[in-house]
């Protein structure tokens, strides 16, 4: 019974410039660790092969060091790897793949599917039908050729492709590199291993996207997995097992604060996230000065635990209460300034007014108030 591991969209060489340097470096390193984890998983699960359905590299300009590290990370699994070029690393006449070959970085057990055709893995019981992208965007279905490919009797027919299954994915990617939704049936494939959609997704019982093994964006689409596929023999239905491989969990929250309990619930949810979290938090609504202090304290606590947390608060208006102002002893002219800044938060200079109000509040705090935080 052939058993193989299906993965895709490694995007090696990707950078995370919008993060702090330390966090960005950790996210990059996690992608190399993901390849090592895939190799161990293939060994532990007694897979006969590993199929990578495109976008091994994030760009043709991946450094020589990145290229070498990618192939070094595969060494824990000695069986065959089949790697397909995707839209980010298309098999151009001069590409990241040809550079890898010149570097001598590609191990003997790694098959680069740089041309359309069939890679026979007879010992493993598999015939891999390949549809590599030879340019970043195509407008015809390259998998149509699968129906014309003859494969030896007794070998399981597995298609390997990178693109958008038409009519079944998000509209914004339903354009270039099209793949017919009935390709597996039309081309008598036992399984069609796809890449491009970064989340794990079953198209039909013979067609799956594995998703990326390590999340790299905030879209909630079941990323961070690999698939172990068992097929009893030609014509048999595949048995697909989804295996979590990701290290970091990405969360993107949009929250509106209106009352004190909203803030308390938000901080509690943050505290319940695992340390491996990458969080993008955007807040709007109203918050008191006391609530602002509580929020900043809570963020400083989880900032030390999480891999990364970024909080956008420019649309969160400070709304000092009478108690806030009384605690600041901001009567007379200072009280009038606070009220003016409070009103100006709704205007064109809203962000500046908010910052000014926060700075003024911090300056007015007494040492005793600060000590009591």
Q: What distinguishing features does this structure have?
A:
17 strands, Purple Acid Phosphatase, chain A, domain 2, 6-stranded mixed beta sheet, nuclease, about 25% strand, single chain, disordered C terminus, about 375 residues, alpha/beta
Provide a descriptive summary of the structure in words:
It is a single chain. With 373 residues, this protein is an alpha/beta fold. It folds into 2 domains: 3-244, Purple Acid Phosphatase, chain A, domain 2, CATH 3.60.21.10; 250-368, no CATH class. It has 10 helices and 17 strands. The protein has helices spanning 21-44, 64-73, 96-103, 183-186, 260-271, 289-303, 322-328, 332-344, 350-364, 367-371, and strands at residues 3-7, 49-52, 81-83, 110-112, 117-121, 126-131, 156-162, 164-165, 178-179, 191-195, 201-204, 207-209, 225-230, 239-244, 249-257, 277-287, 308-318. Strand 3, helix 3 and strand 4 form a beta-alpha-beta unit. The radius of gyration is 27 Å and the shape is elongated. It starts with a strand and ends with a helix. This is DNA repair exonuclease. Keywords: Exonuclease, Hydrolase, Nuclease. Residues 3-94 form the Calcineurin-like phosphoesterase domain. One of its GO terms (molecular function) is exonuclease activity.
Summarize the model shown.
This protein has 373 residues and is α/β, with parallel strands linked by helices.
């Amino acid at each position: 019974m052939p058993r193989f591991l299906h993965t895709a969209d490694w995007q090696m060489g990707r950078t995370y410039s919008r993060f702090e340097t330390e966090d960005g470096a950790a996210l990059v390193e996690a992608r190399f660790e993901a390849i090592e984890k895939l190799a161990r998983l293939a060994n532990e699960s007694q897979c006969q092969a590993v199929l990578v359905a495109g976008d091994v590299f994030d760009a043709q300009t991946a450094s020589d060091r990145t290229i070498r590290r990618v192939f070094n990370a595969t060494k824990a699994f000695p069986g065959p790897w089949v790697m397909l070029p995707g839209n980010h690393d298309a098999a151009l006449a001069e590409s990241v793949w040809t550079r890898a070959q010149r570097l001598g970085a590609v191990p003997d057990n790694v098959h680069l599917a740089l041309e359309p055709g069939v890679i026979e893995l007879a010992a493993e019981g598999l015939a891999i039908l390949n549809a590599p992208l030879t340019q970043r965007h195509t407008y015809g279905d390259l998998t149509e050729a699968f129906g014309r490919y003859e494969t030896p009797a007794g070998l399981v027919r597995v298609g390997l492709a990178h693109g958008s299954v038409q009519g079944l994915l998000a509209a914004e990617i339903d354009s270039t590199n099209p793949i017919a939704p009935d390709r597996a049936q039309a081309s008598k494939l036992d399984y069609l291993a796809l890449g491009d959609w970064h989340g794990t997704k079953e198209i039909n019982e013979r067609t799956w996207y594995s998703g990326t093994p390590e999340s790299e964006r905030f879209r909630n689409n079941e990323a961070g997995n690999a698939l172990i596929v068992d097929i009893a023999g030609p014509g048999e239905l595949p048995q697909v097992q989804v295996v979590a491989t990701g290290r970091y969990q990405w969360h993107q929250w949009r929250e509106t604060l209106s009352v004190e309990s909203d803030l308390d619930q938000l901080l509690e949810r943050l505290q319940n996230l695992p340390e491996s979290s990458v969080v993008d938090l955007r807040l709007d609504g109203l918050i008191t000065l006391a609530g602002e202090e509580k929020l900043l304290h809570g963020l400083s606590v989880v900032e030390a635990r999480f891999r990364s947390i970024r909080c956008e608060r420019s649309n969160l208006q400070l709304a000092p209460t009478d108690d806030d102002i009384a605690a600041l002893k901001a009567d007379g002219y200072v009280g009038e300034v606070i009220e003016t800044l409070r009103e100006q938060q709704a205007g064109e200079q809203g962000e500046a007014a908010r910052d000014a109000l926060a700075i003024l509040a911090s300056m007015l705090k007494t040492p005793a108030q600060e000590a009591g935080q």
